[in-house]
Design goal:
Blueprint (H helix, E strand, L loop, with lengths): L3 E2 L9 E9 L5 E3 L1 E2 L13 E5 L2 E10 L6 E5 L11 E6 L1 H20 L4 E6 L3 E7 L7 H13 L4 E7 H6 L17 E7 L7 E4 L14 E8 L4 E8 L1
Parallel strand pairs: 1-4
Antiparallel strand pairs: 2-3, 2-8, 3-7, 5-6, 5-8, 6-7, 9-10, 10-15, 11-12, 12-13, 14-15
Helix pairs in contact: 1-2
């Protein structure tokens, strides 16, 4: 089964009308179209509710299904799910999703002010973190914080484009993550661009959702920089 991922075209879409295609082994609801982002790339799956003639089904998380384009809406424990063929209204918990978008875009900017290979990352509604291949801790965390907030306040546009698998293979430096590689094999890869087309400040493969401009993130603060191995250090950020 295949789900049309509406968030790919409009990350700000909060609701949609959809049809139930099936129910997975986890009792997850598979729709023909959805505004819910499935967990992946360090970004949590969306939560919200499905409304239908039989009532409401609270969605505790959203994950990827067995098929490449399948999105599974996992209900809260004990919730009744709509039957196959039912028409539903899918409604996001927009407040949580928007915070994910702001944090995700902020982490892209963090990888600009700390231009080192990324070994891991995680996004939450109030905070996020990136792990870097960083043998030595930065000398001036406050300076990094000011650089990051200056990029945010500059109100850079955030947009997307697509390149072919071959173009990505020819430009491996576009991939900042060491452990997670962008999905390939479908002929093209989505690229998130921050800044102008002729001179972006960040340009990297990403399947997640983002805000339209960096100013929408708001001011952030860096947390402590933790040593997580001989060469690995974790840098966290929160909304200020």
């Amino acid at each position: 089964m295949s789900t049309q991922a509406l968030f790919r075209d409009d990350a700000y879409a909060q609701t949609c009308q959809a049809k139930v295609l099936g129910v997975s082994d986890r009792d997850g609801v598979i729709l023909d179209r959805s505004v819910f982002y499935p967990m992946g790339g360090g970004q949590p799956g969306d939560v919200g509710v499905l409304r239908w003639d039989g009532g409401e089904t609270p969605i505790a998380t959203t994950v990827k299904g067995e098929a490449p384009d399948e999105i599974v809406h996992v209900p809260a424990e004990g919730a009744v799910v709509p039957p196959v063929g039912a028409e539903v209204e899918a409604v996001l918990d927009w407040s949580t999703r928007h915070k994910h978008m702001r944090i995700h875009t902020a982490l892209h900017l963090l990888s600009v002010v700390i231009p080192l290979p990324v070994t891991g990352g995680q996004i939450a509604a109030e905070k996020g973190r990136l792990d870097f291949d960083m043998p030595d801790a930065p000398e001036d965390k406050d300076a990094l914080s000011e650089q990051l907030n200056a990029l945010i306040a500059a109100d850079h546009a955030v947009s997307e484009t697509w390149i072919t698998d071959a173009e990505l293979e020819a430009n491996p430096d576009l991939v900042k993550t060491m452990t997670v590689k962008p999905p390939m094999g479908q002929g093209r890869v989505r690229i998130v661009r921050i800044g102008p087309e002729d001179g972006p400040i960040d340009f990297q493969p990403c399947g997640g959702t983002h805000v339209r401009s960096t100013a929408e993130i708001g001011r952030v603060a860096l947390g402590k920089i933790e040593k997580k191995g001989k060469r690995n250090r974790r840098v966290s950020l929160v909304f200020a």
